[in-house]
From TrEMBL:
Component of the MICOS complex, a large protein complex of the mitochondrial inner membrane that plays crucial roles in the maintenance of crista junctions, inner membrane architecture, and formation of contact sites to the outer membrane. It comes from Lentinula raphanica. This is MICOS complex subunit. Residues 277-298 are annotated as: Disordered. GO terms for biological process: cristae formation.
Length: 298
């Protein structure tokens, strides 16, 4: 019993000593901390997860970027080509509109030009090769200048400007050839005019001799026939131009009517001369010889 009581006293003494020690430590200025503890719990710390791609994912990303860049470059090039083609179309359209004359109609004129060109190819299909190659383009150029003069002039001047810009040496040669051709044409016209004047002079001299031999006034008939022929030719030209502008089917009829009219006038003049020869000369043989001479002269 005494032993147990002593143990309790010792333990009580040790407890009092520990309490006094803790009180001394808490009351001392060198204690752990005087701050009050929070009534709420501390927030959880933020955890950052960093994704680390694998090597396969890296290679796939690189290939995808290259494919995307290639697609964008190709799309830009295709779009540039499309824009350039649209610009070319607009430039061609504007150029064609500037070359076409607003005063000329293309609907019948182009048809006439095509018919003239095909006619040239049909007429020369059994001829030599140089003629087959040159005659249809010649008819095409002549018909173009006839039916579409302003448009054809604009087109030729445009091609001439292109030739002067890109092929100056060839343009110079063309100018020289054009000058020579113009000189040749003028000389040809002069020669034709001289031959015509000589022929008319010879015919007039022959008619004068016939008048001296027969006593007939054939010169008056010749002059009347020439005047009528000239007037009819002018009338024919005017009618043909009007027909080409107004109606297409009447051109052939007008040309046929004019040919028939000219033939009728020539026959009438020949008959009048024959009648006068028959009336003036009693001798039939002399009249026959005179008729033959007159026919040769006419």
């Amino acid at each position: 019993m005494n032993f147990a009581r002593q143990r309790l006293l010792k333990s009580a003494g040790l407890g009092s000593l520990s309490l006094s020690a803790t009180s001394v430590l808490l009351s001392s200025p060198g204690g752990p901390s005087k701050e009050k503890l929070p009534i709420y719990p501390y927030p959880d710390k933020e955890i950052v997860l960093q994704e680390v791609p694998s090597e396969l994912e890296k290679q796939i990303g690189v290939v995808r970027k290259q494919v995307t860049a290639t697609y964008r470059d190709g799309y830009k090039k295709v779009q540039g080509l499309v824009d350039r083609w649209i610009g070319i179309e607009m430039a061609v359209e504007n150029r064609v509109k500037s070359l076409m004359s607003s005063e000329e109609s293309l609907t019948p004129s182009v048809l006439y030009i095509g018919v003239a060109t095909l006619t040239g190819s049909i007429l020369t299909r059994s001829r030599s090769l140089p003629l087959r190659l040159t005659f249809p383009p010649l008819l095409f150029a002549v018909s173009s200048y006839h039916f579409l003069p302003k448009t054809t002039t604009n087109v030729t001047s445009y091609f001439g400007s292109l030739e002067d810009r890109y092929l100056p040496s060839l343009a110079e040669k063309h100018d020289i050839a054009k000058a020579h051709s113009e000189m040749t044409w003028e000389r040809t016209k002069e020669m034709i005019q001289r031959a015509r004047n000589n022929f008319e002079g010879g015919v007039v001299g022959g008619v004068g001799k016939v008048e001296e031999v027969t006593g007939l006034k054939i010169g008056e008939v010749w002059r009347l026939g020439a005047k009528e022929k000239e007037s009819t030719s002018k009338g024919v030209q005017e009618k043909v131009i009007e027909a080409l502008k107004d109606e297409d089917g009447k051109v052939v009829e007008i040309s046929r009517a004019v040919e028939e009219k000219i033939e009728a006038q020539v026959l009438q003049a020949a008959k009048a001369i024959e009648q006068k020869l028959e009336e003036t000369g009693p001798d039939m043989e002399t009249n026959a010889t005179k008729k033959e001479e007159v026919k040769k002269l006419v």
